[in-house]
Amino acid sequence: MRRVATGMLVAMASVFVVARYFQGAHPAWEWVLAFSEAAMGGGLADWFAVTALFRRPLGLPIPHTAIIPENKDRIADTMATFLRQNFLTPQVVARRMMGMNLAAAAGEFLANPRTGESRLRDGALGMMGDVLESLDPEQLGGMVKQGLRGQLEKLDVAPLLGQMLSAAIADRRHLPVMESILRWAALTLEDNEELVRSLIHERANAILRWTGLDEKLANAVLDGLYKLLAETIVDPDHRLRRKVEEGLETLARDLVHDPAMHGKVAALKHELLADPAVGAWLDAMWERMRASLLQAVRNPDAALATGLGATFGQAAAELGGALRDDRRLQRLINRFARRTLVGIVNRYGAQIVRLVSETVKRWDASTVTLRIEGAVGRDLQFIRINGTLVGGLFGLVIHAAGLLL
Prior knowledge:
Blueprint: H1 2-21, H2 28-54, H3 67-70, H4 72-86, H5 90-98, H6 102-111, H7 113-134, H8 137-154, H9 157-170, H10 174-191, H11 193-203, H12 206-211, H13 213-234, H14 239-257, H15 259-274, H16 276-298, H17 300-303, H18 308-325, H19 327-362, H20 365-404
Helix pairs in contact: 1-2, 1-20, 2-20, 4-19, 5-19, 6-7, 6-18, 7-16, 7-18, 9-14, 10-13, 11-13, 14-15
């Protein structure tokens, strides 16, 4: 548009030269001369006016030119004041919100499964994926592990273990574990029978070995152990079972009430947390969890097709239907939104407009000029075009008036 406006000005100058050359050849050339002369004046005047808004015409230090660059700070303050007084006031916001039904619009959005569920889900998962990928994995993992370790450090494990053990004993859930341990002990003894015999032979003195009594002693010991384990497994009321249960009940009671036991468990917990193997386990667990999260958020249709995805979609649709159809709920939500937004404007309106003002002030003069000229420059070039045409028309009027006088 700048080239069009400049081209018109050059065209009028060319017409002026031609009309001046043929001025006496015919009376019509007088009208052409008057039009082109006034059009040049109007075009030049509007070129000067438009250019003076943004820069100094021809680089000359003419007063009151380059108006926008020279006054950008005042423009920023004026813009902020205008926004504050005409838009970000509680009265204006409340009046505007009165004509809006945000709850119904949100309900219609959520109730539509093609928009509400998928767009909310994809948007939330996409943002989560971007966050996970943008953060430093080692730093983030360190924060997660540090937080987990801190929570474990604060956790009093002993009473929790004692209560769990007491509940297991009360519900008889310890019996399968005890029987499994007894069967494991019997199988272990059977697999290591030769080792037990050799130990007994080594501990026996020379007389027992010479008389062969060491072999009988070994057989007696093994038979006694086999018999004890078998009777304990078969008999629910065996004395060994009762002793083990009494020991477990005592352990559960000490875990809950004995300070000395609390200290031992806490020391063991701290020792485990300080072990490098536990740190490596936490590292591996975090990497697996991070990889699973990234896979889920980057492929939501596959990872969330069931379970969480279906539940989320159903919940969103139900919420959307309630917001769309329930007038009373709409009034409550809209009133809450209106009061919230009015409160935000009333409390933070000055900070918002100050942000606008300070942002514009931080721009340099050329940035302000380019942005404003880019926004309204096309229309400003129309001013030059109109100025050229209107100037030419006024030239015709003045020429006609001169002939009549």
